[in-house]
Amino acid sequence: MNRETNKYFSKIGLVYFIGSILFSGVQAISASIIRRFMPDIADNHTLLFLIPMLSTYIIAVPLMMLVISRIPKARRIESREMTTKQWVVTFLICYAGMYVANLAGTMVTNIIGQFKDNAVSNEILEIIFSNSMWANILVAVLLAPIIEEMLFRKMLIDRTIQYGEGISVFLSALFFGLFHGNLNQFAYAFVIGGVFGFVYVKTGKIKYTIEMHMLINFLGSAVSISLMKLAGLDELVMTINDPSKPINPWEIMNIMTTHIGGFAVLGIYVMVILALVGVGIALFFKNINKIHLVPSVNAVEKGERFRTYFFNVGMIFFVLWWCVMIVWQLIS
């Protein structure tokens, strides 16, 4: 095992572990202060979400970036332009991969819910449903893509690329997936992170991944949610999941007939999305031979890679922290 490389990756894991604690701590403290000293705000789902998130971006993110920046970049990635065609093809492949991974993650969490006789909650969907649209756009579409791409693409890959594009892209995907803190999001965030990592190591331009990230979040947290609300799915979910009363088929039928027009629009949208996913899958197999990651002269030998890159204090702390968070979310 290469001890110097092992120590280097331990530093990487440790700074992201510290960042994880900062994120979780600032969010928890902000939410606690609101609930204790601002009860009026605590009753507002949007503000209860927005204030802790903005506090995290204002306090935790700069501190995390400061800590990461203490680890020097080894070399600069050569800048290359993407054509419009390349951008569109890559986005469609990414979107298809995300969709398939999301289905897989949802299936796994549903199976786990069956075993524990209690459905695993989809926290992100519940949060987005309860927020106002402007808050979702501000956080999910504008702020999160910029911050996450800086943390998990540019800053992370710039500091690991000297060991090869493969380990850089894998770490980018793994860290990004784990940082979401739940199994369902981990599945599709890992896929997205892998595609965005590939784009960054091949172009050296973070603007492309930010653009794709923004568009994916816009479709998921703005367009999809708006159409789901138009179809009355938020009311439907609340009615079905209301523990205070038994399921009433007539009430469910009434909600569906009241929003019949919204259901029709949502149905058309779903068909368009499925068509895009189909195109993305076809494009992936058409271009699979073009997907290659360049190794590095500094890359660790195959038999030693796991021990060198992951069997160290920093990486163990980071991965273990988020695995515990994911398991806790599954069983709680």
Strand content: under 5%
The Cα radius of gyration reads 21 Å
Structural class: mainly alpha
How many β-strand runs? 0
Count of individual helical segments: 14
Q: How are helices and strands ordered from N to C?
A: HHHHHHHHHHHHHH
Q: Give the quaternary arrangement of the chains.
A: single chain
Give the biggest beta sheet. none
Distance between the termini: 39 Å
Query: Any idea what the shape is?
Result: globular
What is the arithmetic mean of pLDDT?
88
Low-confidence stretches: none
Overall helicity: over 70%
Task: Furnish the topology, listing elements before pairings.
Blueprint (H helix, E strand, L loop, with lengths): L2 H35 L1 H4 L2 H25 L14 H32 L7 H8 L2 H26 L6 H14 L4 H21 L2 H25 L2 H9 L7 H10 L1 H28 L17 H6 L2 H19 L1
Helix pairs in contact: 1-3, 1-14, 3-6, 4-8, 4-12, 6-7, 6-8, 6-9, 7-8, 8-9, 9-12, 10-11
Describe this protein with a few key phrases.
single chain; 332 residues; mainly alpha; 0% strand; globular
